[in-house]
Amino acid sequence: MEITGKDAAIFGIASNDYPKKLNPKTTLDEEFRFKPIAPIAYQAEIRTYTPTDTFTTLITGKGITKSLDAAAKYVDFGKLKVGMKKDTLAAVLVNLGKDTITIGELGNQGPDEKQFVIINFKPVKLGPGDTLYTLLRFSPDVRGKTTTVLKTNVINNDLKILLRGEGIAPREIWMKGTTRNANDSLPVQTRVACVDLATGRKMNELSTGLDGIFRFKLFADRNYGFMAEKENFIATSLNIDLSKHVPDDTIHRDIYLTEIKPGAIIRLNCIFFEFDKSNLLPDSESDLKRLLEIISTHKNLYFEIHGHTDSVGNATYNQNLSKARATSVMNYLVKNGVPKEKLAVRFFGEAIPVSSNSTEEGRALNRRVELKVVK
Q1: pLDDT tens per residue, range 300-350
Q2: Would the CA dihedral through 336, 339, 342, 346 be positive or negative?
Q3: DSSP codes, 70-91
Q4: What is the arithmetic mean of pLDDT over 225-232?
Q5: How far apart are the first and last CA of the chain?
Q6: pLDDT at res. 159
Q7: How far apart are CA 66 and CA 39, in angstroms?
Q8: Which carries the bigger pLDDT value, residue 158 or residue 226?
Q9: Rounded distance between C-alpha atoms, residue 275 and residue 55, angstroms
């Protein structure tokens, strides 16, 4: 048995176990497949061969255009804190045909269907080429990734769209510390700001007492920067990244402030670069703006930007990388109004470590940018 004719490739025989034996007074049943590639009519011939005869049967079919289809494969609500809710107006169905279609209902089904809600849906007529938008709500009640399926059945057309989201329940973590004078480690009264580095938004700000003690409540899954302000001083910025690692429920860190005078060197812990590159990352913006404000305020002073690396790789490569990173910081400052003659770049590669290069923690401390007051 075979299929012949100009459209033979559009049709197929389900089985290929020929020849077959046909007993007297019995019928041969066969399954054929039709796979149209365009909305047109197709035809071919089925030829069945026996030892004495050839039988020919006409086979026809017509391809049709799908009249209704899903507007998207999925709707992603992203991450949302457990107990909160998020509404999204989503495109769900599109009318591809030439006739108006009535959408009578939408439903959702799946193991987590209660966390997804279709809001105020009413039957609607969808004209040719129109897209159906509907309001969907995600309200996670547990932590973790979750999915359900939005579905409808119109004109025997079963359409499904995946709905997905993730419930998060950040742990509360306390950050405690003391603001200290870098020269003698004695407490310093000052203001301290807690910044979400991803958005640049101040999450909290407080004034310490004479004892310099500060305390902030943090949440897991965020990258924080801490910056202290005091007239004629500049603080070493402090970075605590809880998006990668969540430590114990209480973190103890001190912030050190250095008097702004020639010879002072301040570490900038909240300036970040792409891995093995000199491109500044967006999370650096808060510390860069702070640096810009300090330099702009002290118009009579000159500064150096120092670049340092860890010892991974060869010394020449690290020397060049430290130069490129320090230059990126200088270029940011110049672009934002600092006269270039007030700045200089120095680069040391791996030559001046402040910790051991044998551990990841030590190498992270050695990869740094510093600001030095020159004159």
Answers
A1: 999 999 999 999 999 999 999 999 999 999 999 999 999 999 999 999 999
A2: positive
A3: ES-SEEEEEEEETT--EEEEEE
A4: 95
A5: 95
A6: 82
A7: 9
A8: 226
A9: 71
Strand 2-4, strand 41-49: pairing: antiparallel
Positive or negative: CA dihedral 282, 138, 101, 124: negative
What DSSP string describes 267-286?
Answer: E-TT--B-TTS-PBPGGGHH
Asked whether the beta carbons of 95 and 128 are under 8 A apart, the reply is yes
pLDDT in tens, 351-375: 999 999 999 889 999 999 999 999 8
**Helix axes of 285-297 and 315-335: crossing angle, nearest 10 degrees:** 60
| b/e per residue 248-259 (b: at least 16 CB within 10 A) | eeebeebbbbbe
* Stated length of the chain: 375
Query: Domains in the chain, please, with CATH?
Result: 2-62 (no CATH), 68-168 (2.60.40.10), 170-247 (2.60.40.10), 260-375 (3.30.1330.60)
Q: Looking up tokens 């580095």, which residue turns up? A: 197
Question: pTM for this one?
Answer: 0.57
Cα 123 to the chain's mean position, in Å? 36
Q: Which of 59-68, 212-221, 278-287, 344-353 shows the lowest mean pLDDT across its residues?
A: 59-68
d(CA 112, CA 75): 15
